[in-house]
Amino acid sequence: MLVFLDTNILLDLLLEREPYCTPTAYLVSLADKGKIRLSISSLTVANANYTLSKRMGIGKARLLLQNVCVLCAVTSVDEQVIKKALFSKFEDTEDAIQYESALSARADVIITRNPKDFKHSELPTMDAQEFLTWYELNEKNN
User: Fold this and answer.
1) What is the pLDDT of residue 29?
2) Which of 2, 45, 75, 114 could form a disulfide with 105 if both were Cys (CB 3.0 to 4.6 A apart)?
3) What is the Cα–Cα distance from 136 to 30, expressed in whole angstroms?
4) CA angle, 129 as apex, 114 and 53 as ends, to 5°?
5) Omega before 19 cis (within 30°)?
6) Are strands 2-5 and 37-41 parallel, antiparallel or unpaired?
7) DSSP 8-state class, residue 117
8) Beta carbons within 8 Å of 48's beta carbon, 6+ residues apart
9) Which of 117, 113, 115, 132 is nearest to 25 (CA)?
10) Are strands 2-5 and 72-75 parallel, antiparallel or unpaired?
11) Which residues contact 131 (CB under 8 A, 6 or more apart)?
């Protein structure tokens, strides 16, 4: 299963924003154990770098993102993704880019703190805790 992480989820983890970072850390541990695969967009790397650099400096931000990229595949934001996003029904362009990037990577689910922002998504979209509940239920049934 390929799980696409929205920027806010990655920042929750890296900035240890409670109560959101705990379920996100557990989700990342599933990837570390090889039970799921994680992906983020190249846009997420850029946006997270900007926010992290402002909070903790360029060096620490870059080190954190290097570690993230060991565990997460990074999807492209290319011309096709941008054009699809700009012509999509999404109100927020950044969300549209994330969505189209997840689609192009063939993600199975999008994890975001704001599922309502993805109301036009054809992919299941949920927050980290909802995903963990869903995942554990499916694991018990398999």
Assistant:
1) 95
2) 75
3) 11
4) 60
5) yes
6) parallel
7) G
8) 7, 10, 11, 14, 61, 65, 68
9) 132
10) unpaired
11) 3, 23, 27, 109, 111
| pLDDT recorded at residue 18 | 93
Residue 98 and residue 105 in contact, taking contact as beta carbons nearer than 8 Å: no
H or E element at residue 40: strand 37-41
Q: Which residues of the chain are under the pLDDT cut of 50?
A: none
pTM of the model: 0.94
- Contacts by 95-102, CB closer than 8 A, 24 or more apart: 95/6, 97/41, 97/43, 98/4, 98/6, 98/7, 98/41, 98/43, 98/44, 99/123, 101/4, 101/41, 101/42, 101/43, 101/75, 101/76, 101/77, 102/4, 102/39, 102/41, 102/75
Query: What is the chain's mean pLDDT, rounded?
Result: 95
Q: What is the pLDDT of residue 36?
A: 96
